[in-house]
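Hi R.,

Here are the chain sequences for the assembly we discussed:
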Amino acid sequence: MSYVKRFSRTERTVHWVNAAAFLLLLATGLALYIPSIEVLLGRRPLLKDIHFWAGVCWLPALVIVALLGDRRGLLATARDLDRFRPSRFNVGQKINAILTAAFAVLFTISGLLLWFGERDTRFRFASTVVLHDGLFFAALVLFIGHLYLALIHPATRHSLRGMTVGTVSEEWAEDHYPRWDARLRPGRD
Amino acid sequence: MNYNGSTLSYMPDEEQGRRIGRGLFLATVAGGISSLAWGKAAWNAVSSTVSPAVGTLAPFLPTEGWRIYTVSGTMSGFDRATWKLDVGGLAQHPISLTYDELLTLPKATQVSTFHCVTGWTVKNVHWGGVRISEIFNRVKPAPEAGALAFVSAEYPYVDFLTMQQAMLHDVMLAYEMNGKPLPHEHGAPLRLIIPEMYGYKNVKWLNKIELVPQAENGYWENLGYDRDAWVGRSNGYSGGAE
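And here is the predicted structure of the full complex:
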């Protein structure tokens, strides 16, 4: 079987740094949100510190990865995501990527407002909690769908290989992305 | 050369698809930020229209609307055998009540709404406990006592009410919540309830009440919150409670 390059090393690093931050924020966020976990752990200030600093580092870490990696490749990927037409990604994947990016920005903004609101009432809005929680539920829906397609659904789970080792089988690529010319690499490594 | 530059650049614009992605990104971010102005009103509207469904779901939701806030590393434990409520300061008969003695005092019950200053609200909470007047009947406050310090076992949490505020009809030292002993995360075994003020005045893990000449800044007031935390009329809010 022959394989074709699907994701560059920079793209994979961006993905996994984002995934690690999201999972850490999800775990600590749930522990802060659900009283029974909270009572069990009983380390609220520590959890809150981890949650806060993971949130603060989230977007800067992605920017650093992008700056140190293949910037031109990422820019080209961004331009591809902008166009709602099947290419290396289908339209559903493009919507998922764009919403995920927008949610990260909104999570950061609402999270910082929650943090500063505890220190200065000028930063406190009655709806900040609603926004942060609403984002949590919306992001969770996207995340579960993403996990299902990447890990469980038989037709699509081969794609996980593209995000781990970076390559997918040529046959699968032709089946799933007929408009993607996989002979052309998705950026440098 | 990368993939997009090679394949897309020679394609006519309509072949490449319309540039919608950036619009979706900006609209999502802008919509999210603008929700700081309308999010809570929208949520209230939605939750009141679907309230029967939410009511059915409530037992399965993790928090039933509550958020638990603490300020120290661990939540204080409760040992029924050794726990005491000390009431002293400017009083003629300082007392120290065990949990069982507390339960023998005349019991009051009420249903009230709990408002947090960060914007969430829990409606129709059933509380059971003791009115402050029952405590006063026993300790006999001295004439110079002008306020009460409510001291939490969660050091250094403390907050104050004036005598007048403490005598409001629905102020309570609550040891029961929704028909059960006050849960651990809600301040077991005893917390202050003052529905007219935001949650940070409703001291949890209460184990000491001190009669003092006048009210001072409590824990959150030292961080900039209002000392008189009237719901809808303090901390930058106006227009009253919903």
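The helical segments of chain A are 9-33, 35-41, 44-68, 71-82, 91-117, 128-152, 159-164, 170-176. The beta strands of chain A are 3-5, 167-169.

Let me know if anything looks off.

Best,
T.
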